Amino acid sequence: MAETAIWYNAGVESAAASQELMAWHEEFEAAARRPLPLRVRYAFIKTYRPVLDDEPFRAFDRMADYRAWCESALPSWLGYGRV
Amino acid sequence: MAAFEYRQAEEIRDAFARHGVRYLFIGKSGAILLGFPDTTQDADLFVERSPGNGAALVSAIRELGFDLTDAQAAEIVRGKDFVQLKNGPFDLDLVFAPDGIERFADAWDRRVDVEGFSVCHPDDIIASKAATNRVKDRESLPRLRAFRDYWASRRQD
């Protein structure tokens, strides 16, 4: 019974992954049909990001410094923290 | 500040060419130029670290309208690993040492030309994002890897 359930779940997950991949491919095909200027227009957005957007200039000696700053200074929901 | 526009990508390309700056679009902005359908906020540039390239870079970005003090310009010329510019007509991230890529020269050799834009190879973009290991990158990596495979298969056709 347990084995059947595992097999069934694996099959469902595999089908879902396959469907997701097909959906991505459709998106890639659609993007490939758009001229570059239009792709850029669709892709770049601007929303205010607290802290990150509050200074006109920042420079970090090392990437590790930047990563540490992101973890300590930015709201976690922005997604800049490490996994 | 408004969103980054294609015209501004052209301005980067043209100004950097005039000043002889060696750079590559990287990150999601690079992937988008390659055809990856997604959204992002900033343009990210991987810049070769050398005194000459740093000086050329400062001249180019000042020409683009970025308001740099002499101290800020000096930090860019020195090639700090990461510089975030929000003092110009659009937001720009300058990366001199992206995670996951050993040397600029290697990425330069693998670069892809997209209608005159020099862009990191998708493998380098993925390597950089994977090494960074941020929450937001981890979420987008499976789709980006699928795009890399799609992009490579189209190149072979």
Structure description:
The complex is a heterodimer of chains A (83) and B (157). Chain A has 83 residues and is mainly alpha-helical. Helix content of chain A is 61%, strand content 5%. Chain A has three helices and one strand; from the N terminus they run ααβα. The radius of gyration of chain A is 21 Å and the shape is flat. The two termini of chain A are 36 Å apart. In chain A, 11% of the residues are buried. The model of chain A has no long low-confidence stretch (mean pLDDT 89). Chain B is α+β, with helices and mostly antiparallel strands and 157 residues long. Chain B is built from seven helices and six strands, in the order αβαβααββαββαα. Chain B has a four-stranded mixed beta sheet. A two-stranded antiparallel ribbon of chain B has the order 5-6. In chain B, a hairpin with a 2-residue loop joins β5 and β6. In chain B, α1 packs across α3, α2 runs antiparallel to α6 and α3 packs across α4. Chain B is globular. Chain B starts with 5 loop residues before the first helix and ends with a helix. In chain B, 43% of the residues are buried. At the A-B interface, α1, α2, β1 and α3 of A face α2, α4, β3 and α7 of B.
Question: Could you give a short description of this structure?
Answer:
The complex is a heterodimer of chains A (83) and B (157). With 83 residues, chain A is mainly α.
In what range is the share of β-strand residues of chain A?
A: under 5%
Rg of chain B, Å, rounded: 15 Å
Ranges of chain A with pLDDT <50 over ≥5 residues? none
Sheet with the most strands of chain B?
4 strands, mixed
Q: Helical amount among residues of chain B, as a percent range?
A: 40-55%
Give the total of beta strands of chain B: 6
Number of strands of chain A: 1
What percentage of the residues of chain B does DSSP assign to strands (E)? 5-15%
The average pLDDT score of chain A comes to: 89
The average pLDDT of chain B is: 95
Going by helix content, strand content and strand pairing, the class of chain B is alpha+beta
* End-to-end CA span of chain A: 36 Å
Which segments of chain B are poorly predicted (pLDDT under 50) over 5 or more consecutive residues?
none
Q: Cα-atom Rg of chain A, whole angstroms? A: 21 Å
Q: Strand-and-helix sequence of chain B, N→C?
A: HEHEHHEEHEEHH
Q: Please summarize the sheet with the most strands of chain A.
A: none
